[in-house]
Design brief:
This protein is 24% helix and 14% strand.
Length: 404
């Protein structure tokens, strides 16, 4: 067993209190050592016996052993369908005109794009982070992260984007260890605490195959364990004042991504871990005609049953990075752009993350007519309805550009 010396120890932030906190599942308690004294380190174990020895013989200095599965983005246009509509159709169906008439363009709002990295020559960035030193924010080639950044700007063209280049290319695909995501979110907690008020975080990635996770019920498990450090730091980021969005996933029953594990598709088996956290906004995917996309993951969620929360538009001709901006990877940043535009008007001291989430749920367009369901949550996000619910009025005649 070896410590990974390339991984800098990361303080594990714990969410304290909150009505939506999931119940303890594993018996692990960060409070046994105090929230400021707990750090995550990464260990390479030779085999399961080595992990068992650490689990059995751990000293008071080792307060938990957790799985570190691989996570990947949710990008691909599966189902063999051509793009449906384009950027202007998404803007029209979202109600972006109502946002911009109210002078809400995301100005002064920070949006962290936790992804593969952003091409700053196409989409300007204000800063960022990466798991390896030396990365220059905005220096990535145009790929998944640039698509996501583009989609944020459909509703929030003036938001400041931060390039959190978590997912790196490996053998033709993008992936990261969950321990790197812990480091990314810990950095975000510090940023939000240093400059509170207007932060929105997009995560168009997650766990495709639970075979890389510890079994459900194990104290090491991630996918269904609220005590896992990443699920804890996700709650801490919301508590710090960030609006945190996750793509629901691309493992829906009708045409799941080929990377979805056996038994990891369809209702009740496809929204895992932080993507199902009770305090985040989990986003399903529809076309601009309000048709659910068959790859869109379906609830119940593993940590919180009433997932997804709402749906965003996807599978449209947009950034030009791919034939279609597709997957729940596109749906989530489309919704994030709406949140960022609204956040311009109301900092978190006036509209807490839970209140903004509730507003987006209440004003979503209930296309299935059943109030809430495991396919689309409360319905399709509706910026115009949210503006109306907040009582925001048009501000003059000048309209912001929707060019992205």
């Amino acid at each position: 067993m070896r410590f990974d010396e390339t991984y800098h120890p990361v303080q594990v932030w714990r969410r304290i209190g909150g009505g939506d906190d999931p119940p303890a599942a594993s018996g692990f308690n960060y409070g046994t050592v105090g929230p400021a004294a707990t750090y995550a380190v990464r260990v390479d174990a030779d085999d399961e016996d080595a992990v068992e020895r650490l689990r059995r013989d751990r000293s008071a200095d080792v307060v938990g052993v957790f799985a570190d599965p691989t996570v990947s983005p949710f990008p691909s246009p599966y189902c063999s369908d051509s793009p449906v509509g384009a950027t202007q159709d998404v803007a029209r169906r979202l109600g972006v005109r109502a946002l911009h008439r109210a002078k809400l363009t995301g100005r002064g709002v920070h949006v962290a794009v936790v992804d593969t990295g952003i091409d700053g020559s196409r989409i300007p960035v204000a800063g960022g982070w990466a798991p390896t030193p030396g990365y220059v924010p905005g220096s990535s080639a145009p790929n998944h992260g640039t698509m996501v950044a583009y989609d944020v700007r459909i509703a929030a063209p003036d938001a400041q984007l931060f390039d959190y280049a978590l997912l790196k290319s490996q053998a033709g695909t993008w992936a990261a260890f969950l321990s790197d995501a812990i480091a990314a979110f810990a950095d975000l907690v510090e940023r939000v605490n240093a400059a509170p008020g207007r932060w929105v975080v997009n995560n168009s990635w997650g766990l495709f195959d639970r075979a890389s996770d510890a079994p459900i019920g194990s104290p090491e498990n991630y996918s269904a364990n609220p005590d896992h450090p990443f699920n804890q730091v996700t709650g801490a980021l919301v508590a710090a004042g960030a609006d945190v969005f996750f793509a629901a996933g691309n493992c829906g029953a009708d045409c799941p991504d080929g990377r979805c594990g056996a038994g990891d598709t369809g209702s009740g088996a496809s929204i895992h871990g932080a993507n199902s956290h009770p305090e985040v906004v989990s986003v399903a995917a529809v076309t601009v005609t309000d048709r659910r996309l068959g790859y869109s993951s379906q609830g119940p969620g593993a940590l919180y049953s009433r997932k997804p929360d709402l749906a965003g538009f996807s599978h449209f001709a947009g950034s030009g990075i791919y034939p279609a901006d597709a997957g729940t990877s596109a749906a989530s940043p489309v919704a994030v752009g709406v949140a960022a535009a609204l956040r311009q008007a109301f900092a978190t001291d006036r509209l807490a993350p839970a209140q903004l989430k509730g507003l987006l749920q209440r004003t979503a367009r209930d296309v299935n007519g059943d109030g809430w369901d495991y396919d689309l949550g409360y319905g399709v996000i509706d910026a115009a309805a949210a503006v109306k619910a907040l009582g925001l009025k048009p501000q003059g005649r000048k309209r912001a550009s929707t060019t992205v």
